[in-house]
Amino acid sequence: MTITPKQRILATFQGERLSNVPMGVRIDLWYNYNLAHDTLPEKYRGCSKLEILKDLGVGFQYRFGRLLKEEYSGVEVIEEVEDSTTITKFVTPVGTIQRKVVLNPYEGALVGYETEKLFKTREDYPAIKYLIENTVPSTNPDQYAKAREEIGEDGVMKSLITM
């Protein structure tokens, strides 16, 4: 009986011993870098990450979609974008906190570095506590179903959370 890449990955997660180590390729960093530098191999120009993985016939973690997101109750979220920097302010009844994330175009459009953290001084604790207590994860069932269909038996999902 042939075992699919998804079954092989899940069996490994469950501690089963297999004859071969499963491939769980993480292509996003390679893809983002090469896409940003216009150095994707000719064969894969215009292809999505998922199309490349399926062409290679390897198992993978689907980590390309935003299947979950965070919503806030009683928090005003103000987002400003300046060039490659995104400044996000969280205005709560007990204080305002902010963070900055800089995207590095040389590493791909999705690779960001947090250059200013939410927590800076102990005065930030009440606002951070309020933010955490009033954060509600939500899903996008249609996007989840589409991703699940695209993946099939070739891999497993790993959702990224957006704030």
Keywords:
163 residues, alpha/beta, three-stranded mixed β-sheet, 28% helix, 29% strand
Short précis:
It contains five helices and nine strands, in the order H-H-H-E-E-E-E-E-E-H-E-H-E-E.
Structure description:
The mean pLDDT is 84. β3 (76-82) and β4 (85-92) form a beta hairpin. The longest helix is centred in the C-terminal third of the chain and has 11 residues, at 141-151. It is extended and about 60 Å long. The protein folds into two domains: 5-66 and 139-162, no CATH class; 74-133, no CATH class. The strands form three sheets. Strands 3-4-5-6 form a four-stranded antiparallel β-sheet. Strands 7-2-9 form a three-stranded mixed β-sheet. A two-stranded parallel sheet has the order 1-8. The protein is an alpha/beta fold and 163 residues long. It has five helices and nine strands.
Distance between the termini: 43 Å
Poorly predicted regions are: none
Number of strands: 9
Strand order of the largest sheet: 3-4-5-6
Assembly state (oligomeric): single chain
What is the string of SSEs from the N terminus onward? Answer: HHHEEEEEEHEHEE
Query: What is the mean predicted local confidence, pLDDT?
Result: 84
Largest sheet: 4 strands, antiparallel
Helix count equals 5
Helix amount: 25-40%
Shape field:
extended
The amount of beta strand, in percent, is 25-35%
What is the structural class? alpha/beta
Overall tally of domains: 2
